[in-house]
């Protein structure tokens, strides 16, 4: 088999890149380790920055997104019973939209299938060969037999646990990591969200987040020890703890119900440099991870895809390699800004086991400054709606 761009990974990164390139007449093959149903079963944040919204439109996927998404002009921040808003629209002139990552991925799968573009599921033993040569290829097994794809370029969109990043020699790779000493226990419930906007809630008991997928599907999180397991938390225990971490005004109006999904996610900041090795380009979680405070995971994957998509179009249509030559430099410049914002917001809103009383006062002073100062709010808003590509 031969293609122009072999895409490893059928998550949001790989599918978005494939769809954008397809619309420019550039051939791709997507290799996905799991089944489509498994990929769609993943529960992930669905806050879309303006840049990703524009990419979805360019991919021809604006119709359902515009019909079903919620436009959010701001967010709420609270500390114990004190709550205030950050008005993205007033401060930056733009908003974000709430559209579950599952829906983004569903739309991308539907588009790829409609285009008849190849996506190979249940592939195993993917190995990248000759990434630093002019003739790379990928081998893999499917249905018990070994297969090979010869290609011009390889997009490593296979997430944090994929094979692409590890293909870059350790003598070339530099990795930066911070693991946080807590996790997020999240639940989905078929209940109306407690508020029309998201609430990022700090409290003496730890962080909580009130989010949503649609007007009858709520997503809530509470910070929890890494030693906790989902089965340690009954629904009632979860709701009781959530009520104690959000302002009383919100706790009083919280509508609870049975959880339809309950899971714990660890928090990590991670960046691999470079994001390119020869004809292999890393995108999304394959190259970087952010803690979910501020919902930058999907959106930072999107900016990688923006840079790689334009670089490959420039190569194939304009015979100009400047975009792919500078991909890693351009992508990392924005990745590190998203890492900083996610790290800052996580440190601001969470309780850390080793915090001193002084540290806690510093958090409280910074939240108070954010409440009272327009410039501080503008900094948060500019990062939250998405820095320019
Ligand atoms: N071969 C083929 N596919 C693979 C391999 C492999 N060796 N390893 C992993 N995959 C697949 C996974 O099954 C997954 O579907 O690659 C895909 C990677 O998707 P994601 O992990 O979702 O990463 P990405 O597409 O970059 O999307 C980033 O997803 O994890 C969230 O918070 C993250 O919102 C962000 C977004
Ligand atoms: C979510 O809805 O899952 C979500 C929203 C915002 C975040 C993280 C997760 O910062």
Structural descriptors:
single chain, 389 residues, alpha+beta, FAD/NAD(P)-binding domain, D-Amino Acid Oxidase, Chain A, domain 2, 8-stranded mixed beta sheet, 6-stranded mixed beta sheet, 14 helices, globular, binds adenosine-5-diphosphoribose, binds P-hydroxybenzoic acid
Structure description:
The protein folds into two domains: 5-72 and 96-177 and 268-345, FAD/NAD(P)-binding domain (3-Layer(bba) Sandwich); 178-267 and 352-385, D-Amino Acid Oxidase, Chain A, domain 2 (2-Layer Sandwich). Helix content is 38%, strand content 28%. The protein is built from 14 helices and 20 strands. It has helices spanning 12-22, 36-40, 50-58, 63-68, 88-92, 101-115, 164-167, 235-245, 248-251, 297-318, 322-325, 327-349, 357-372, 374-385, and strands spanning 5-8, 28-31, 47-48, 70-72, 74-79, 82-87, 96-98, 119-120, 124-129, 137-142, 145-150, 153-156, 174-189, 199-202, 208-214, 217-224, 259-273, 276-277, 280-282, 288-289. Strand 15 (208-214) and strand 16 form a beta hairpin. It binds adenosine-5-diphosphoribose and P-hydroxybenzoic acid (PHB). The site of P-hydroxybenzoic acid (PHB) has 11 residues, from strand 15.
Give the structure's gist in a few sentences.
Helices cover 38% and strands 28% of the residues. The chain is an alpha+beta fold and 389 residues long.
The radius of gyration computed from the alpha-carbon positions, rounded to a whole number of angstroms, is 21 Å
Count up the domains. Answer: 2
Major β-sheet profile: 8 strands, mixed
Low-confidence stretches: none
Helix content percent band: 25-40%
């Amino acid at each position: 088999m031969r293609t122009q761009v072999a895409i490893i990974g059928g998550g949001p990164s790989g599918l978005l890149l494939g769809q954008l390139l397809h619309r420019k007449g550039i051939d791709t093959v997507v290799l996905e380790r799991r089944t489509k149903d498994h990929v769609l079963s993943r529960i992930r944040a669905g806050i879309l920055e303006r840049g990703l919204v524009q990419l979805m439109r360019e991919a021809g996927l604006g119709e359902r997104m515009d019909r079903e998404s919620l436009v959010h002009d701001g967010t709420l921040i609270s500390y114990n019973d004190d709550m205030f808003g950050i008005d993205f629209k007033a401060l930056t002139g733009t908003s974000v939209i709430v559209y579950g990552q599952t829906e983004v991925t569903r739309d991308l799968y539907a588009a790829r299938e409609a285009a008849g573009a190849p996506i190979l599921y249940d592939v195993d033993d993917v190995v990248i060969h000759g990434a630093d040569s002019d003739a790379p290829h990928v081998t893999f097994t499917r249905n018990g037999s070994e297969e090979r794809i010869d290609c011009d370029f390889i997009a490593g969109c296979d997430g944090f646990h994929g094979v692409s990043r590890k293909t870059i020699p350790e003598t070339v790779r530099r990795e930066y990591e911070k693991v946080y000493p807590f996790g997020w226990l999240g639940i989905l419930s078929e209940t109306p969200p407690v508020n029309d906007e998201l609430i990022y809630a700090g409290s003496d008991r730890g962080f909580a987040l009130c989010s949503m997928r649609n007007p009858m599907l709520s997503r809530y999180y509470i910070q929890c020890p890494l030693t906790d397991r989902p089965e340690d938390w009954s629904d009632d225990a979860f709701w009781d703890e959530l009520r104690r971490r959000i302002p009383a005004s919100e706790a009083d109006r919280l509508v609870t119900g049975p959880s339809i999904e309950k899971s714990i996610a660890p928090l990590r900041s991670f960046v691999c440099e470079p994001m390119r090795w020869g004809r292999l380009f890393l995108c999304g979680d394959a190259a970087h991870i952010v803690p979910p405070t501020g919902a930058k995971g999907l959106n930072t994957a999107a900016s990688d895809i923006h840079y790689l998509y334009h670089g490959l179009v420039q190569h194939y249509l304009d015979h100009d390699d400047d975009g792919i030559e500078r991909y890693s430099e351009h992508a990392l410049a924005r990745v590190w800004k998203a890492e900083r914002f996610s790290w800052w917001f996580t440190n601001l809103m969470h309780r850390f086991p080793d915090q001193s009383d002084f540290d806690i006062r510093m958090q409280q002073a910074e939240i108070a400054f954010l409440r009272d100062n327009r410039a501080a709010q503008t900094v948060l808003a500019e990062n939250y709606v998405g820095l320019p590509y």
